[in-house]
Amino acid sequence: MEKKVRLGVIGTGHMGQYHVNVAKQLADAELIGIFDANLERATQIAEKHKTKAFSTVEELLKETDAIVIAAPTFLHHKIAKQALTEKKHVLVEKPISQTVEEAKELVTLAKQNKLILQVGHVERFNGAVLELGKIAEHPLLIESRRIAPYNSRITDVGVVLDMMIHDIDIVLNLVKSDVKEVKAVGSSVVSNHEDIASVVLTFANGCVASLNASRASQAKIRTLNISQKDSYVFLDFTNQEIELHRQASSTTQLGSGEIKYRQESIVEKIFVHKDNPLKQEHEHFVKCIKGESEPMVKGDSDIRTLEVAYKILEEIHGKK
């Protein structure tokens, strides 16, 4: 495909408006227009970004080669299936669908029609995460913290499918081993779904991952720590920064009534190319459509992520 990819965005809510903004900046794609169930909002967003607000999904699909789905989760399967059936490439926000069975159906449909189906795990395009795979080769222990204030706009899913799913996806991609055991606890604080969750994943190769997420906090923290045999990695998603600690040694000295502890290590600041992860996600989607790149977040991978997420939800809600 030599000409620009004709792109449409469905859903102009919290994430949708960011997708529209990024789509307008792409060099190899043209934003044809947008659709939202709230036509008034769609019109406002369209005017702001100098594009067209379509009155139906069908009309938008007729004019485009690919669509970005940023509608509520319960609509993901229906819209994605409609688009794939009409031979349109799809970038759908996470989670891909409400059930694993629906996700498998979409992946199969995309393969049958030889279409790109990309799931919006935007953290995969974080500059620090792109570098992480080069230095985290044999994780022994992974610890993630993803906490933030409550966002009243997100009401259809809990913290596991809203926030923790990013870390599940990253961890599964790093460890590359089967999940042997899932332990999880969580509770509702400010919504009808779980708002805090603490999870331990044990892998067949011995790696252990501790994932903690909250959307009932007054602070915003997104970090990932990885312990390996000869190194320790600290990643800050917000600042897109990585620190690599090597050759750690410690000594304890007993003095006159004092215990002195000293630790020495070499700390490397890994160079990270910092860019807008959402923009990079869109650019990657377009390159895949044009045949210039292979999908980074493949459908089969996201089915596995969704399966683990639902095991976590079963653990949490089965204990109530």
From TrEMBL:
Originating species: Leptospira terpstrae serovar Hualin str. LT 11-33 = ATCC 700639
Domain Gfo/Idh/MocA-like oxidoreductase N-terminal positions: 6-121
InterPro entries: Gfo/Idh/MocA-like_OxRdtase_N, Gfo/Idh/MocA_Oxidoreductases, GFO_IDH_MocA-like_dom, NAD(P)-bd_dom_sf
One Gene Ontology MF term: nucleotide binding
A Pfam family that the UniProt record links to this protein: GFO_IDH_MocA
SUPFAM superfamilies: Glyceraldehyde-3-phosphate dehydrogenase-like, C-terminal domain (SSF55347), NAD(P)-binding Rossmann-fold domains (SSF51735)
Name the UniProt record assigns to this protein: Oxidoreductase, NAD-binding domain protein
Residue ranges of domain GFO/IDH/MocA-like oxidoreductase in the record: 155-220
Spans traversing the lipid bilayer: none
